[in-house]
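Subject: complex prediction, re-run

Hi both,

The earlier run crashed halfway through, so I resubmitted it with identical inputs.
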Amino acid sequence: MLAVVILLIFLKAVGILSPLEALITRVLSPIEHFVYASGVKVNGLYSSFTGKDVLLSENSNLKDQLAALTVQNAQIQVELAELKEALIQHDFLDSRDLRAITVRVVGKNPQPDFQSIILDQGAKAGIRVGQPVIVKDGMLVGKIFKVNDYTSEALLLSDPRIRVAAEIQNNLKSRGVVVGEHGLSLKMELIPQNEIIEIDNLVITSGVEPTIPRGLVIGRVVRIESQSNALFHSAFVKPITDIENLLVVSVIE
Amino acid sequence: MNKIILNILIIILLGIIQVSFLTTWPFPVNSFNLILSLVVFLVVIVNYHQALWLAFGAGLFLEIYSSSFFGVIVISLLILAMAVNFLFNNFFTNRSSYSLIILGILGTLIYNLLTTAMDFLVNLFRGEDLLWYYNIWPKLFWQPIFNAIILLVIFYVYYLSTDRLTTSLFFSSNSYEKRS
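This time it finished cleanly. Structure:
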C-alpha cells in the first residue's frame, strides 16, 4: 500500500492526477458547499437557542448596519487622505477599480491548528497566492496561501501564520503588521511607540503589499499593549465581521 | 464490485463530513478528527486490514483539500494504523473501552507528530518559509480529548447496534478478548 502511495505521489508531481482531482472537486463541490452551509446553519440555530433569539436577531441587524457604515466611513477617509496627499488621480481610480472572483466556501482545513477556508475555485479561475479575500463591501477576512488547479485555501485573519500590512486611521496613520493570535483575535504589531493610538480606532490595509489594495477594513482596536522601554507597541484588533461562518467570499485579482 | 463502490461512497461521505461539516463547529468542538478516530476504532475493535483501507482511501480524499504536501496525510494515517496495531498487539490485553481511549489518544498524538514533522521537513526541503508558529494546544490537548470522546461514542453505538453490550464493557471479559 505504501508503494501505491509513493506511486501516487509521483503521479501527482508530474500532473497525471490533475484531471481526476478536477473531476472529483467539480462533482463534489456543490455537495460539499451544501453540507458546509448546513453545518453553518445548524451551528447558527444552536447559537440562537442558547440565547434570546429576538435580541440576537436585532443585534445581528445592528451589527450589519454598523459594519456597512464603518466600511463606508473607512472608504471615505481613505479617499480624503489620498486626495489631500495629492496622489495621482488615476492611481486613486485604479485603486478603486478592483476586479474580484466570487467563490464559494466548501470547507475548512481539518487540521486544528489551521484557521483557513477551502474555496471552490483555484488557479484555473485566476486565483493566485497572496491575493486578499474579502466579504461584503471590502472587509478583509484572509489571504490566499495555497492554490490548486480547481481549489484554493485562504488563511483567515485569525491564523497565526498570516501577516497583513495595516494602517490605523488615527492622526498619524500609524502603520504596522496585523498577525493572527491563535484563532482567538488579531494583533497589530510594530507600531512605533511614539505614535498615539486609541481604542476604537479603525484598522485598514495599508496598501504596502502589492497584492492587497489600501483601504480594506480589518477591524477596530480593542486593546493597546505598550511597554515603556520598547520601540514598538501593539494593538489588539477585533474584526468587524464574523470570519468564522463565511459562505461566499470574493478574491481580489 | 458493489461492495467496493459502497466502500468508496462511504469514504467520500466521511471525507465530506470531516472537511465540510465538522469544521463548521466552534472551537474546540471542531478539533476532533473523525477519520483518524475511525481508523483507530477499526484497528482495535474490528479489523486491521479494513483500517488500512480506510486510512488509504480517506487519506487520499483528504489530500485533495489539504494544504500539506501530497502524501503527508495518507502516509501519516497508514503509519498511525500500523503503530496503533503494534501497540495494541504488544501492550494491551483486551478490547475494552479503556484500551480504545488510550490508543485513541496515543494515535492522535502520533498522527499529529507525523503530519507536523513531515510538513516541517517538506517546507525545509523546498526552502519555503518555516512558519514554525503553530498553536500546538489544539493538536496536543483538544484533539486527543475529543477523539477519545468520539471513540467512546462509536464504541457504545457499535456494541449496542451489534447487541453485544454487557455490564463488563469497561473491563476485560471473554466476549471482548483480544483477537488472535
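Helices of chain B lie at 2-21, 34-46, 48-64, 72-91, 97-126, 137-161.

- K.
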